[in-house]
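BUG: 3D viewer hangs when loading the predicted structure for this chain

Environment: internal workstation, default settings.
Expected: structure renders.
Actual: progress bar stalls at 90%.

Input used:
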Amino acid sequence: MNYLENYYNAYDEEGRLLSRHGQVEYLTTMKYIRECLAGIADPAVLEVGAGTGRYSVTLAKEGFRVTAVELIEHNLELLRAKLDGTETITAMQGNALDLSALPDGAFDLTMVLGPMYHLYTKEDKHRALTEAVRVTKPGGYILVAYCMNEPTVIQYVFGLNHLHEVMELHMLTPDWHCISQPKDLFEMVRTEEIAALDAAFPVERRKLVATDGATNYMRDRIDAMDDATFAKWMDYHFTICERQDLIGASHHTLDILRKQ
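Structure tokens produced before the viewer hung:
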């Protein structure tokens, strides 16, 4: 069993997205999913790295045709347990680096909302996006989520006082980019790296969105908000989440691409 399987077998990813601070990322991602699906008759949706099905199962229960691919068997079991048999969904075990079980140009929307968090080389990232683009219809959308570098430096390195530890382990470059390996679980990127990856493919970026923005810097306060205050926070967040001057400070981003 590898580091990733150990992590997700023990981690409550569903609980994170259901928490009030986790709802910001979820609601934001769903907002842009719905924008991409609007106006498409009977769209075919693929989620690569579907996790426990927070997105895939929701869309399937709303009547969309969904294919969910997930690497971790534990997550796949949790996903399938949410289904009652009425949904039009195919759930399968698979790897973002090899979607050969799926045909070219089959999906109107391909979501890669987790795999890029755990790919540590340019070659693997390129391969994952190659596969996502391949299985998407011309004119279809590809949504790719990333973990961003600066929030990790700010909150983990300095905020949680891990500076000396990460310096001793040589986990930072001279320009303060986090250096990750599989044992570290998460890969951090900057906006220019996302743009460079996109440039290698026949895609047009439609938007780059901060899916949680400032939320995780004050998650305890977000979790303590009453409904009215949280609604105002979401209004503020949606107002600024496309501001490119703030994107790099968000813990998570969503790259919205359209296949040419």
